[in-house]
């Protein structure tokens, strides 16, 4: 079926392939209808946008894992705060919801969520004939994780759709591309990706966080602190360590800042 919930089917999956269409990753969005069953409270309110319902985004191309973004709701919210103007944030709240958006008792509200991932930075159209795309979105573990307050209002996501632009290329383009690949030529595409992970650190002593990944070019590193206290929501739990603390990061042979104390 096409109904998903934390206590039912938890993974939304789309497999996109075609003989001649090209996939435009910059335009990816999902459309879902969120339904409240009205128990135990009459209405439910979102903790953040509809992105707060999702725990992980995974993308494959031609069977190869491109990226797996954990803590998706929290990272999505952080990226939108960092990169969106006030006007853009207001427009996103209209279509994707925001903190306090209400879904009325026993009704379904439609939300559209532009996806955030590295693949969206790809400047090329992707030929689905040679690299079919698979997208998977996994729901959060508990109903309350996506909702404001502590009530475990049951909700489901229904009529879930992937929205993306497709380009119909002339048959000669596809045929010429196929012939070139059949002769051993390579199709080199610059595909950005996001790598995320979490690690628990203690509140005293020196802590070392290690992460390694082979990439052709590193664009950005972000470090966020999270401490889920009572009443906090995973999609909006941002913390700054209190008291005196120092941090230094090494990327390859370089340290940032260069001189740590």
Put the structure in a nutshell:
The chain has three helices and 15 strands. The protein is an alpha+beta fold and 261 residues long.
What share of the residues lie within helices? 10-25%
Strand arrangement, major sheet: 1-12-4-9
Low-confidence stretches: none
The count of DSSP E runs of length 2 or more, i.e. the number of strands, is 15
Specify the structural class: alpha+beta
What does the radius of gyration come to?
21 Å
Q: Please, what is the average pLDDT?
A: 84
* Main sheet makeup: 4 strands, antiparallel
Description:
- The protein has three helices and 15 strands.
- 13% of the residues lie in helices and 28% in strands.
- The strands form five sheets. Strands 1-12-4-9 form a four-stranded antiparallel sheet. It has a four-stranded antiparallel sheet with strand order 2-11-6-7, with helices on one face.
- It is an alpha+beta fold.
- It is flat.
- The protein has helices spanning 72-83, 86-96, 171-182, and strands at 3-4, 11-16, 21-23, 29-36, 44-45, 54-61, 64-70, 102-103, 108-114, 126-127, 133-139, 155-163, 166-168, 249-251, 254-256.
């Amino acid at each position: 079926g096409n109904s998903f919930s934390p206590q039912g089917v938890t993974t939304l999956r789309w497999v996109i392939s075609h003989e001649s269409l090209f996939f435009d990753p910059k335009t990816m969005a999902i459309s879902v209808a969120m339904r409240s069953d009205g128990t135990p409270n009459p209405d439910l309110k979102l903790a953040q946008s509809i992105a707060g319902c999702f725990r992980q985004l995974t993308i494959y191309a031609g069977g190869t894992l491109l990226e797996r973004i954990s803590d998706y709701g929290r990272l999505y919210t952080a990226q939108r705060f960092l990169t969106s103007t006030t006007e853009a944030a207001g427009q996103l709240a209209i279509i994707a919801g925001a903190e306090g958006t209400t879904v009325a008792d026993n009704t379904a509200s439609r939300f559209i969520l532009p996806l955030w991932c590295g693949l969206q930075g790809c400047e090329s159209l992707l030929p689905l004939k040679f690299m079919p795309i698979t997208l998977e979105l996994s729901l959060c573990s508990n109903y309350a994780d996506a909702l404001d307050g502590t009530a475990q209002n049951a909700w489901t996501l229904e009529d879930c759709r992937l929205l993306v632009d497709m380009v119909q290329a002339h048959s000669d383009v596809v045929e010429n591309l196929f012939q070139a690949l059949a002769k051993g030529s390579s199709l080199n595409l610059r595909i950005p990706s996001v790598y995320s992970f979490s690690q628990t650190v203690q509140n005293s002593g020196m802590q070392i966080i290690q992460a390694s990944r082979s990439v052709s070019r590193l664009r950005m590193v972000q470090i966020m602190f999270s401490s889920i206290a009572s009443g906090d929501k995973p999609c909006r739990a941002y913390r700054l360590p209190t008291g005196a603390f120092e941090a230094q990061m090494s990327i390859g042979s370089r340290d940032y800042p260069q001189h740590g104390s």
